[in-house]
Amino acid sequence: MHKLKENLVKLYHFSNTWTGTVIIVLLAIFFFAQAFVIPSGSMKNSYFEGDHLIVKKFVYGIPIPHLPWLEVPVLPDFNDNGHLWEGDKPQRGDVVVFRYPNNPKIHYVKRCVALGGDGVMVRNESLYIRPHEGEEYVRKNYLPDQIVRFGDEVWVKDPYRIKFPGIRYDKHARAGGVLPEQTSNFGPITVSDGSFFMMGDNRDHSNDSRFWGSVPYKYIVGQPWFVYFSWEPRSYEDVATNMVFLNDYEALNAVCGEQEVESDECRKLWNRERYRVRWDRIGKSAATIESRQ
Fold first, then answer.
1. Of 228, 241, 235, 191, which is closest to residue 213 (Cα–Cα)?
2. pTM assigned to the model
3. Which candidate in 44, 56, 57, 110 is catalytic?
4. Is 110 known to be catalytic?
């Protein structure tokens, strides 16, 4: 007991040194939790640009630790699955933080809408999934008005919009007629085994699995925990003058009111609101954020 107390005292004193503090912080980032910032509007209205999140990194196993900012792995991928310890896998409806398969140094935040073996397609602003568990599972777990039949197959229409009201489509973007075909007419495809089909809640402004495929387990990092800070970081140019796929006229209309969104008056009003802190989001858990519109 005396030896244990002595070691705890030594550990306490070590943690108060600069070296100890750095090591403890790195260990926390490597294995427990890490801060991320939502960089785009692909998850609006569930998560907004400028939402600063703490992400739980232990929900889906322990991913291979990477040096922050440099995103260089500090350990080999011993198990060839991107994780030191394999854990639970993302489930349908989970919001997941993962590494972009085409550039693993970049993190994305999307909703998992389908699992390996599931069918996926998009038609007329509706997502359809065909759960791999089969028809009996579908009829036990989904409402009758969500279930549709295409030929011999039973599909579920918009399985997440009731529970997650932040899922949305942008009428302004669709009216422009220049959205990529995949946003409204995709599939049907079957998700490859061991992978996860990810989509943004802001369906018309999301670069997701419709364009670059499903996400293998090796790229899964964790799950949003809570919002610790939030503000509007974008300039007027970022919001209004990019191509239609990225524009956010809804946000501009909310700020500019009756002013034309492309006018100098709107520009001035928007830039006056820039960096405004969203106090109502700070400290909110992921579950709270995702369940409200």
1. 191
2. 0.88
3. 110
4. yes
